[in-house]
């Protein structure tokens, strides 16, 4: 381990990764702004669903535009390496704040970006081909500790490999669900759409997706298979982008995959960028190595060890809960489970006060279409919404309101079943890490991880 920590590597891959990350985030945030999603998702809703433990993250109203502007500007600063460390901290904090404002918008790749930004705060990505290095020649470094680049590769490995492990389940491999539901709905696609009418196609997609996630990083690490593996990355994520509306994630992963290529490959990219920007030919050249002080180096190695230990263990927290994971979703988020289920639900709430007065709730008066869709199938959303209703009706004449729900959910094409015990007063329940005993069991088993 000591010998490994003393190894050095070219700084070019980390510099290219810094530019790619900043550019992708800027484009993603600008896309959000241009499509009007800032207003639709973060300003228009009357209520928001916070993540457990992050209730202090509150919506900002019209100031959300300012938050996005700050996030976009910091992404540009990161891309060019200008005041890199403060810009990276600002990017991490602003992006993560946006992510935490409403869990209705949760996506795995937001979590991935937040983790990358957190890591990049501590990595010397500004020591090569950056404005900071141009202004301060003592910072300019052509080499960095090898573990700085390997840490990014490790995070990418965890994302892919754990996504592959999650696909080792009976619904995905044996029943080709939910792709058996999704793909026929895209049979109007040009050229390949007709294929989705064949029953064997979802099975091919399911098995290929599982094998891809499990083995792609190993193939990218091998010099002999790297180019073919990367072409597979491009094809896989472009197909994903065409078939499913998951934003910039496919393009972020295409860009991230470049980190596995050689230092010479990245130096050629930097030379082309330098030529296009008409920078001095000698600007990218540097022979010294960026080094951390002995104390700082030990602290960073210790912090990264704890960070990756947490990332390796946290996705398995679902084992602490009874019941079918896809049904209860206890321990589902932040575990790299990507597009594994098709879930739809219906939830009708009734509010009753101690004097017998009651009212059936119209969800559309409180929630947006997206929020209602997410709420109806996820128990932690349901109990949070029950407390929103409790507070609202307490202010409007109901004394000690009780909140009950009739909820029916279908999972991966199964017949709809009740999700929540209708006799449970959800106003008395709270969201926590403890098991939610008021969830009605699925009484079916999806075998696998």
Order of the strands making up the biggest sheet:
4-3-5-6
The N- to C-terminal Cα distance equals: 31 Å
Q: Rough shape?
A: globular
Work out the helix count: 18
Largest sheet: 4 strands, antiparallel
Secondary-structure element series: HEHHHHHHEHHHHHHHHHEEHHEE
Category by helix and strand content: alpha+beta
How many β strands by DSSP? 6
Quote the average pLDDT. 93
- How much helix, percentage-wise, in residues? 40-55%
What Rg do the Cα atoms give? 24 Å
The low-pLDDT segments are: none
Beta fraction of the residues? 5-15%
Provide an overview of this structure.
This protein has 449 residues and is α+β, with helices and mostly antiparallel strands. It has a domain of 96 residues. The chain has 18 helices and 6 strands. Strand 5 and strand 6 form a beta hairpin. Helix 2 runs antiparallel to helix 13, helix 11 packs antiparallel against helix 12 and helix 12 packs antiparallel against helix 13. The model has no long low-confidence stretch (mean pLDDT 93).
